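Hey,

The postdoc asked me to send both predictions to you directly instead of through the lab channel. I've kept everything plain text so nothing gets mangled by the mail client. Protein one:
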Amino acid sequence: MSVYYDLFETPGIQNTGEPQPLYARLIPKSTIAQDEFIDRVHSFTSISHRLLQGTMKAFTDELCDSLTNGWAVEFGDLGYFTPSLKSHWVMTKKELRSASVSLLGLNFRLSELFFRELNGEISFERKPASKVPLTARMLSKEEGLKFIQEYLLKYPCINRAQCSHLAGRNRRQAIVELNVFIQEGSLMRHGVVRTVVCAVCRY
């Protein structure tokens, strides 16, 4: 699936009112919350949800502790984090005291390895010129079921996270739609709670 972008006019610094050059800016489809992200990782690994949640918490706690103690942190193959600072403008070093320096945010520098991997996989598409929200242009229920059934011809079962990816649904929409397919008899439910998966009906 492509990543949407759109073109925006560069702000005119001098406010002349003349047309300004256009630049491309990413248009996110939505935000993947932490629980859904963990669901996605879990669906393609054998690592439990609880272990993934604990590991993510441990990573962020250690990241905070290391940054607090003045270190730049390499976060796996992803890249490097360093704190960014803010202070008022001064002409000499003596004019600025430590109390006037505060945290602005975090700088992130993408690693070359991750950049090459991401750049090799990602593709871009101009956002369609329509006022209809992106969610309204998702696959129809019938199209979504078709993609799921095609997936189940290759694999024995499908879970909620995989359904979200295939049919272009968020977490809530995928759960509701899978339940509808189960009630209609198009899919069969196996497992309970987080381990629920669905398989295509063979009868």
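Protein two:
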Amino acid sequence: MTTTPMDTASAWDALDGVDLPRGYRVEITDGKITMTPQGESQWKIILKAAPQIERQLADHGDILSDVMIDFPSSLYGYAPDLAIIAPGSERNSRGRYEWHSLEAVLEVVSKSNQDNDFSKKFRMYAECSIPVYVIIDPSAGSCTVYQHPTRTGTYRDDDVVPFGQDLVLPLEGREIVVETDGFPVDDAR
């Protein structure tokens, strides 16, 4: 995969030179910078899923967690919980991957970011033609796999996978299987 230069400013440019506090997730949605602490369930799921994915990628792509990705709008700057980078992808002149390098994005829902994951990110990822978008919801105890994005900001197909069943990520020419047995379920309290 080759690099396509972005013709818009990156949303992340607004944070150049800013010393951000550790332990906070920073994202930019509709031009607004949001900082939220990462929840315990979110962190545990990322820690369980990332090594499984990395092992199966076997140098055919890469996995990143909470790393800035450049999107084709200066109003959106997302750092997905887990992003699978396509083999052969290159960083842009800013040193970051761009949206077209993503084979799959996995977001772990927390109460503070539900609206973003289920609507704003869903729409942006589909409009950017990210082939697979997975929402992992510890409150529901399930993962929803969205495939076949449309330019209108939706995905044509979705499949719900309860925790305890294997989460299958259909990547180009291969599949990644993530065991969800140990994913924590949040209390509804």
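Summary for protein two, as requested: The longest helix spans residues 40-57.

Thanks,
C.
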